[in-house]
Amino acid sequence: MKNKRKETIKDLFDLTGKTALVTGASGGLGRDAARAYAECGAKVALLARRKEKLEDVVEEISQLGGEAIAIQCDVTDEEIVKDAVEEVIQQYGKIDILLNDSGVAVRGGVHNLTEEDWDKSMNTNVKGAYLLSKYVIPCMIKQNYGKVVNIASINAIIADKNDLFIRHSYNASKSAVLGLTKGMAASYGRYGITVNAVGPALFESEMTKDTLFKSDEFLKGYSKMNPAGRPAEKGELNGTLIYLSSDASSYVNGQFILVDGGISIV
């Protein structure tokens, strides 16, 4: 039976009673998202390779009055992913929300990328989302409800000609995430499951703070081009994630929402 339609706008964004599974939750956008889910009432399962970092996030959520568990997980390893999902279900009984946020950005063009670098991007960014979805979707089908949000990137549709920032494997992998999102959305909508993707532009994170944010030339150029006149600030992705993860987006499926300050339109 599908969930009953909530009556007020405030209720539509309420995640009380929901369980969210977040990959890449040890830092950056995943960590921020996990906190946001907890603040909206969800119980949160945190997955990443760095268990000690996850424990820090569990403590932060606990201090907010929320509940979370930390599970060490390599999203590219099927058996590890399967065990992690089973652990979440054993702990919380269900998974209502899946945020696929694990990702890497390997610098280089096809002329100088190693096969290892290519595989690293595709395995983490695409295979990881596939494996988590493979083991979470059956749970969602059984309960006839689910919200899957895949973190893609503005670089799924926009590339950079600056040699310092060419990342062809990142472009390809994030474009693949959009294809996966559409396919899943078309197949699983009948089960009360929505699948959408988000395309962040430039946010400071572990992935960008030592590269893009260290180039004054790049930041000046980016800010000049972007209608917002600046990179994104911490937390500015959370509203979109909560919207797509809540009943407020009950009829939004297979979409790609850019959170980019408008840079994609100029």
Automatic annotation (TrEMBL):
GO terms for molecular function: oxidoreductase activity. It comes from the Bacteria. GO terms for biological process: bile acid metabolic process. The keyword Ribosomal protein does not apply. Keywords: NADP, Oxidoreductase. PANTHER family: 7-ALPHA-HYDROXYSTEROID DEHYDROGENASE, 7ALPHA-HYDROXYSTEROID DEHYDROGENASE. Belongs to the short-chain dehydrogenases/reductases (SDR) family. This is Gluconate 5-dehydrogenase. It comes from Sporanaerobacter acetigenes DSM 13106.
